[in-house]
Amino acid sequence: QVQVVESGGGSVQPGGSLRLSCAASGSIFSIRVMGWYRQAPGKQRELVALITIYGRTTHANSVKGRFTISRDNAKNTVFLQMNSLKPEDTAVYYCNAETTGGDFWGQGTQVTVSS
Fold it and tell me: What does the alpha-carbon distance between residue 78 and residue 21 come to, in Å, rounded to a whole number?
């Protein structure tokens, strides 16, 4: 099994930046993809960004050019750098580890963008 723990959420004004972190532990070798998802009140959970074990990244159209997913293999940590934040980015952000044994989710971290 894999455990993932998010950190770095908070409140920021429009145009501001935040950096989310997701630390993975457990059966790290089984991880194939790690990703960030978000869920706003009353909406379905949606993909924000993914990074594969080969370093290939995918970003949702809504965040392209503003958000960047990256990783530190030595620390088993994935990051989401969020710049030029908008009120519509407000959501609970979840880290996901896609492994050979299934998907594992973190508890989520709240991001609020408001003036």
Answer: 6
How does pLDDT run across 14-53, given as a tens digit for each residue? 999 999 999 999 998 999 999 999 999 999 999 999 999 9
Pairs from 80-84 (Cβ < 8 Å, separation ≥ 24): 80/19, 80/20, 80/22, 80/36, 80/48, 80/49, 81/17, 81/19, 82/17, 82/18, 82/19, 82/20, 82/111, 83/17, 84/15, 84/17
pLDDT tens readout for residues 58-88: 999 999 999 999 999 888 999 999 999 999 9
Determine the Cα–Cα distance for residues 65 and 7; give it in Å rounded to an integer: 22
Identify whether the C-beta of residue 64 lies closer than 8 Å to the C-beta of residue 84: no
